[in-house]
Amino acid sequence: MKGPSRAITTAAVGVLLLDAILLTYAGVALRRPGLLVWAVVCLALAGVALLAWRRYRRAMNEIAVARREMRHDIEAIRELLHRHHLHN
């Protein structure tokens, strides 16, 4: 099974960081504190995107482990049924 791709998350974080940098530059150059506020918002959203990605990867790894364990249990049950000639 192929693991989750990082391309979308990387692009989203990159765009948000670029927005934060450009808004900071514009806020300082034009002396507009409102733009600095939005720069901080973009920076915070980039952090949220990274944290959400890490949580998603952790959940996907847990699911993969559970599937492997379940597959092992199913094989053990099949072997038990086969040994006692209870298979169809």
List the SSEs and their pairings.
Elements lengths: L6 H23 L3 H51 L5
Helix pairs in contact: 1-2
Give a written overview of the molecule.
- The chain is 84% helix and 0% strand.
- It has helices at residues 7-29, 33-83.
- The model has no long low-confidence stretch (mean pLDDT 92).
- It has one domain (7-83).
- The two termini are 30 Å apart.
- Helix 1 (7-29) runs antiparallel to helix 2.
- The chain has 88 residues and is mainly α.
- The protein contains two helices and no strands.
Shape: rod-shaped
Number of helices: 2
Number of strands: 0
Distance between the termini: 30 Å
Strand content: under 5%
Number of domains: 1
**Biggest pleated sheet:** none
Helix content: over 70%
In the predicted model, the low-confidence regions spanning at least 5 consecutive residues are: none
Q: What's the Cα radius of gyration?
A: 24 Å
Question: Briefly, what is this?
Answer:
This protein has 88 residues and is an all-alpha fold.
Features:
single chain; 2 helices
